[in-house]
Backbone:
């Protein structure tokens, strides 16, 4: 019983560590476009997002119930399985953060759970129909729906404001962006914080602390909301840089459309109990807004890397979770070995990130070094066919020297200019 109690405590702490990584990994979902368009300063943006993540954690428990009693069968699942699943999710989160890829923390968690469960009890421990209907299908549909919604919203905003002064419209949409970013943060807390609540609740069920089918206790809701809020405040600057500047160039109208579309999709899914990837939804909305503006382009090289990461997340986290479960099943020494591997792997990733640090000053709109992503094929093609300036137009700072007429007094030190 003492071993079980100690292990349960380790699992709860590990789950909160995952929640913390989820926070800084997914900060970009709500605030990347707001920062990239200059609507909010970076630290102000992440502070606002953190506060609203905490509030959102108290709004619903439907997603938590989907995880704690839906994706896998509670019968036969041990606390060691949950620990192994969290190890797979945390390591994948940290690796994709190091690469600056906005992958799905949700799918990393699901992959870890599925892999560890398959290693422990076999296919009977996984509810395949729930995985398909509430994980895989939403993973495909949600970013497409959010992208189409953001594309249509972008075109609508430009059509409505076509007779409006561009500077005045930009100021108004920046204010709208702040409100829509707050809505996305609230939705993120409602959806993503619940995933950790579900995992902790599942651990409490396997440890016979609460009955199967129970809602998360209040202390679980508070601790999960606090952990994700602290992670959000830390700021995942690498992924903010990719989402805000590396994927497409957004104007305030586009940022407002992208955030509003994403928040609508996330809140609707949370109400229905669909455990969406907020990262995929927000990324799809950003790409939709990017192509929604006439002349707007998406850096498809970056988008392709994101798609690859999305496809790899579930199987990669499942493999790590299965390997971790193989070790934890060997007994106390296996649990200790997995804990050491988790700490060592996290330390290596952190040390690698310090070789090329990315901070809040790397994601501001006026930072010329903020995005080193090369232009995509479409962008390069547009630049190649850009017409030359009209005849007689003179660029800023360009000076043309005209020679003096023949016979006139030379003025070598004062050339005529236009």
Residues:
């Amino acid at each position: 019983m003492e071993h079980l109690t100690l292990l349960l405590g380790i699992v709860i702490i590990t789950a909160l560590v995952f929640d913390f990584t989820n926070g800084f990994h997914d900060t970009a979902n709500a605030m990347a476009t707001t920062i990239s368009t200059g609507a909010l300063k970076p630290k102000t943006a992440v502070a606002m997002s953190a506060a609203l993540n905490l509030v959102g954690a108290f709004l619903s428990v439907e997603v938590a119930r989907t995880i704690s009693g839906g994706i896998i069968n509670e019968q036969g699942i041990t606390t060691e399985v949950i620990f192994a699943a969290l190890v797979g999710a945390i390591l994948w989160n940290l690796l994709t953060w190091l690469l600056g890829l906005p992958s799905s923390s949700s799918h990393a968690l699901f992959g870890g759970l599925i892999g560890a469960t398959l290693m422990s009890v076999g296919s009977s421990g996984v509810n395949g129909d729930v995985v398909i209907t509430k994980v895989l299908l939403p993973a495909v549909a949600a970013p497409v729906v959010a992208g189409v919604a953001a594309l249509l919203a972008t075109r609508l905003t430009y059509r409505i404001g076509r007779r409006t002064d561009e500077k005045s419209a930009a100021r108004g949409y920046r204010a709208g962006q702040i409100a829509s970013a707050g809505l996305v943060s609230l939705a993120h807390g409602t959806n993503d914080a619940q995933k950790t609540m579900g995992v902790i609740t599942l651990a409490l069920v396997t440890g016979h602390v609460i009955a199967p089918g129970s809602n998360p206790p209040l202390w679980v809701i508070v601790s999960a909301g606090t952990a994700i809020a602290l992670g959000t405040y830390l700021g995942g600057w690498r992924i903010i840089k990719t989402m805000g500047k590396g994927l497409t160039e957004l104007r305030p109208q586009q940022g407002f459309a992208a955030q509003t579309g994403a928040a609508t999709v996330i809140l609707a899914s949370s109400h229905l109990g669909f455990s969406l990837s907020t990262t995929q939804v927000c990324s799809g909305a950003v790409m939709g807004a990017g192509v929604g503006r006439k002349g707007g382009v998406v850096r498809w090289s970056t988008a392709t890397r994101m798609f690859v990461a999305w496809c790899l997340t579930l199987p990669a986290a499942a493999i790590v979770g299965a390997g971790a479960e193989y070790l934890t099943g060997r007994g106390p020494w296996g649990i200790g070995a997995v804990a050491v591997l988790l700490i060592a792997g996290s330390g290596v990733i952190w040390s690698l990130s310090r070789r090329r640090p990315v901070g809040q000053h790397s994601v501001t709109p006026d930072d010329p070094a903020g995005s080193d992503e090369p232009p995509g094929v479409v962008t390069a093609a547009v630049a190649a066919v850009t017409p030359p300036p009209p005849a007689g137009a003179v660029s800023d700072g360009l000076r043309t020297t005209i020679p003096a007429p023949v016979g006139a007094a030379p003025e070598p030190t004062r050339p005529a200019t236009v």
